[in-house]
Amino acid sequence: FVPERFDKIYLHWLENIRDWCISRQLWWGHRIPAYYCDDCGEIVVSKEAPAVCPKCGCTRLTQDADTLDTWFSSALWPFSTLGWPKDTEELDYFYPTDVLVTGYDIIFFWVIRMVFSGYEQTGKSPFHHVLIHGLVRDSQGRKMSKSLGNGIDPLEIIDKYGADALRLTLVTGNAPGNDMRFYMERVESSRNFANKVWNASRFIMMNMADEPSVEAVDRNRLTAADRWILSKVNRLAKEVTDNMDSFELGIAVQKIYDFIWDEFCDWYIEMVKPRLWNQEDETRDAALWTLKQVLINALKMLHPYMPFITEEIFCNLSGEESIMISDWPVYQAQWEFASEEHEIETMKEAVRGIRNARANMNVPNSKKATVYVVSENPKVRDIFERGRVFFSVLSFASEVVIQSDK
Asked: Engineered SS bond to 64: which of 16, 34, 257, 379, CB 3.0-4.6 Å?
């Protein structure tokens, strides 16, 4: 079980077995396959309705009016949906499956009964891992119910905010097995993130229009900013993969969210705008190529959480058939650029300091000022010299002066 603490519920039920009444007085479900002879009362249990009573030969038999407990029927789901009891290709390929995702409230109702039904009918456990999620509660922490009238209609939320926004909300900031409180403000925030991804993608594709050379860029023209963001997304792929392999879905998507919103949109795209707007810049193609590669990899990692918007953007951006059948991003050592990361992080720290100072003094962004970079270290001065153009833009500078003393 993931988390492991739910093993206790599973084991407690097995260690304290009680009789299970499998009949229910319902109008739906699987009828109990028991037939009663109208003459002698003989009970016949059979897959097919018997024509005659095997004891007295009577042809009048009545099927039991009760149905099987819902959980008895549901326990057959892992293999009955794949053609069982026939030995089908689907059953051979998909059974047992790898992961079952379910709530903690039905571990003893469903999970346990699927396991012992699987062993009884097939000799195998129906799954290898069980990922447990919590309940979705209202903003006050109450369980949603008809009596309280605090339930939500997901279709209404989807109509207003989109399916992707709802999906992201239900995973973000939520640890396996823990309940979550549902706030509409969080759905709005997820919708805003979807808009951020859409607008950033539109900006990139607009700048890529009529640029056939993007696919044949000279990698040697990659700047420090290009290498920085490529290194970041490369490491992100490794971390996200590790998190997802460990069923840490909330942690993984938070890393993707932070990378796209902060490092990619708020930093890198702003860094490369001067290069994109200058048709004579010899590194313009490198910027476009980097934008495309990073966006594609970020979309692939975001796809399990926001499948609709990522599919739409990916198909228009890459020309491939579908993001669902594309290769998952894999960490590559050649895209690790530690020195360039240090360079860009140094400049980012300086930009943050300048922006904080301007905010403290209520200086509007439209009012430019001369920015002095003072360092006795020639390596530091070289860093700012190489990034002078985008550093000037991000720090709202009218001029950047780099010198060794005050």
From this structure: 34
